[in-house]
Amino acid sequence: MTPTTHKDFRAVCVRCGASRPYAAVDPRCSCGGLLDPVYDLTAARVREDEGVPSARYFDLLPLHRAESALHIGDGNTPCVHARTLGSRLGLDHLYLKDETRNATRTTKDRMAACVLAVLQEQGVSEFVASSTGNSSTSFAWGLRFTDAMKVHLFTGRDFVDRHQYTHHPGVELHVVDDDFVGAASAGRAFAADQELLFEGGFFNSARREGLKLAYLEAYDQMPSPPAVVFQAVSSGMGVYGAHKGAQEYLAMGRLPALPRFVCVQQLSCAPMWQADREGSDRIQPHHILRRPQGLAKAILRGDPSNTYPFMRAITTGTGGGFAGVDDDEMVRARRWLAEDEGIHVCFAAAAALAGVAQLAARGEIGRDEPVLVNLTGGERDGQADG
Ligand SMILES: Cc1ncc(COP(=O)(O)O)c(C=O)c1O
Ligand SMILES: [Zn+2]
User: Fold this and answer.
1) At what angle do helices 108-121 and 205-221 cross, to 10 degrees?
2) 271-308 pLDDT, tens per residue?
3) Interval between CA 318 and ligand 2 midpoint (Å)
């Protein structure tokens, strides 16, 4: 098969519907709305014989040229039918997308592969980013696969040891004496001052589109389509990508219906879960946490005000919801995954499974329903503090 080497697509505002040329460097519509890349789904197909995820799903990625795609050891992870763990939870079709098998042991490698490729294609060679550690680690790792790109990674002091591969000459680590949200603000200010691109986190569609590939792979791997999907959320960009991918697969006839999406948070830092429980369609001041603490460090975002409305639209629109899990539930879920399935996850991934266990126990998932859980990250150096 000769792959299409070029494709056209537009950026479309999810709020006002305005459309314009796709530019990763300009992530918001003038109305303030979120811009999503929109592809020609009548022409799009999955190139099943391509080994590299960014080539297989090129038609559904925000890249114009196939040659722009990057592979940084991301993807092609197993989607395991967890029979032992499933029987423990009363679920006959529990599927675990084992994202711990990515190069740096988290699903964020998919995000970095896509963002770096998009930035390179658009001629950006230096940018600023911030995360609780996993995304920054993926960027730092991915840099060696680029043509001499440079990244400034901003982090709060408590998260420094969660950054790896930062010894690369293109990586500059900036440590801020603040929490993750504060470090992100410092990064944004630095970018403005230095006239560099702040890549934008959730609002960078290349991040969401990269994370989508974990789900496209899983939808393709499962013998029957998922009825319910679980992921641990911080901003929600992974679930956003998962939902967009499901919509695209629905339009392409590759899924029969949208699954219910469930976003899981740890109770010590669960602003989205709390706002939803109160029936609030936005994050209010009393939901916000300063310097949040918790076992699952990867998802310690105390203020998700900007992204929560998108996540609530997805959970209500699909009949899913939010789940809040406590430390004991996460510890237990992590042990089950190790004992029953031999998968060694970080606490964020354990939270997602704990969410499944909670809803299954409440009878909110049918025994026969295919359930997909994204195990977003693994232990690193024997540590599970993701
Ligand atoms: C392991 C892991 N799981 C889940 C998440 C949740 O990310 P988000 O909600 O931003 O997609 C993160 C984010 O850093 C992560 O590192
Ligand atoms: Zn708009």
Assistant:
1) 130
2) 999 999 999 999 999 999 988 999 999 999 999 999 99
3) 23
Minimum-distance ligand 1 atom for the alpha carbon of 348: 3
User: Do the beta carbons of residue 226 and residue 255 sit within 8 Å?
Assistant: no
3-state secondary structure of 311: helix
Residue where a domain terminates, one of 148, 169, 203: 203
Give 311-329 pLDDT, tens digit per residue: 999 999 999 999 999 999 9
In this structure, are 281 and 297 located in the same domain?
Answer: yes
Q: What is the pLDDT of residues 58-70, one digit of tens each?
A: 999 999 999 999 9
- Atom number of ligand 1 nearest to Cα 135: 14
All residues at 6 or more sequence positions from 380 whose CB lies less than 8 Å from its CB, including other chains: 104, 105, 164, 346, 386
Last residue of some domain: 170, 203, 236? 203
Q: In this predicted structure, what is the pLDDT of residue 158?
A: 84
Rounded distance between C-alpha atoms, residue 73 and residue 57, angstroms? 16
Question: Which structural domain, as residue segments, surrounds residue 265?
Answer: 79-105+206-375
Residues 6 or more apart whose CB falls under 8 angstroms from that of 165 comprise 104, 137, 140, 141, 143, 171
Q: Which of 241, 238, 306 is nearest to 271 (CA)?
A: 306
Amino acid at 223: P
CA–centroid distance, 322 to ligand 1, in Å, is: 15
pLDDT value at residue 181: 82
Count of domains for the chain: 3
Residue 94, strand partner residues: 371
Ligand 2 centroid vs 205 CA: distance in angstroms?
A: 15
Q: Which residues line ligand 1 at a C-beta cut-off of 6 Å? A: 106, 108, 131-132, 134-135, 232-238, 298-299, 346, 348-349, 376-377, 386
Q: Which residue, among 181, 192, 318, has the nearest Cα to 247 in the 3D structure?
A: 318
**Residue ranges in the chain whose pLDDT is less than 70:** 1-4, 381-386
> Among the atoms of ligand 1, which is closest to the Cα of residue 211?
11
Question: Which protein residue has the closest C-alpha to ligand 1 atom 1?
Answer: 377
Task: Give the residue whose CA is nearest to atom 13 of ligand 1.
Answer: 298
CB contact set of 81 (below 8 Å; sequence gap of 6+) = 93, 94, 95
pLDDT at 385: 57
